[in-house]
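User: Fold this; tokens only.

Assistant: Input:
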Amino acid sequence: MSALGRVPIAGACAPDFELLDSTQTPRRLSELTSYSPLVLLFYRGDW
């Protein structure tokens, strides 16, 4: 994290979290990265 404590530094490991997939099944980051590398994309919305 940066000095602000909220903005991650590029290349830093993401904290483990859980979100719902497209079938409403909960998925944890740690579960997905146990299979293969993972790319996170944060879509900001409509420009």
